[in-house]
Amino acid sequence: MDSDVIVAFIGSWPIEMEVIAEHMDLGDLCNYYLMTTSSSVPFDWRLKTATILRIVRGLVYLHTVEPAILHRDLMSQNVLVDSKKRTKLSDFGASRKAGDGNRTNGLGTCTSG
């Protein structure tokens, strides 16, 4: 996938079954938000709006490529933040091609706390 709102796939390491992806300096959106709320760097409305718009752009991109892709596990831990505070969608382990007939009920990630 070639988009500025999707974390770039670089390669894979089949022996360990690991994906090699673009480095995102500020980590995931959940931790970034927690970090900014406890520091003097504000997560202001302008940044919140830009973040939401980039997430929506990422979903629109996924749903309009051929074949369309369903992320199926969108949450703040799967949205990564780069050094310029731009968000990108990541973690496509649960994703599926739209209409491939491979449906799973109750898909998602359970978190505690």
UniProtKB/TrEMBL annotation:
Please report the stretch or stretches of sequence annotated as the Protein kinase domain: 1-113
Q: Which residues form a coiled coil?
A: none
Q: Which SUPFAM superfamilies does the protein's record reference?
A: Protein kinase-like (PK-like) (SSF56112)
Start-end of Polar residues biased regions = 102-113
Superkingdom field: Eukaryota
Could you state a single Gene Ontology molecular function term?
Answer: ATP binding
Q: Which Pfam families match?
A: Pkinase
Q: Where do the segments described as Disordered lie?
A: 92-113
PANTHER family xref list: PROTEIN KINASE DOMAIN-CONTAINING PROTEIN, SERINE/THREONINE-PROTEIN KINASE TNNI3K-RELATED
Entry protein name = Protein kinase domain-containing protein
Originating organism? Saprolegnia parasitica (strain CBS 223.65)
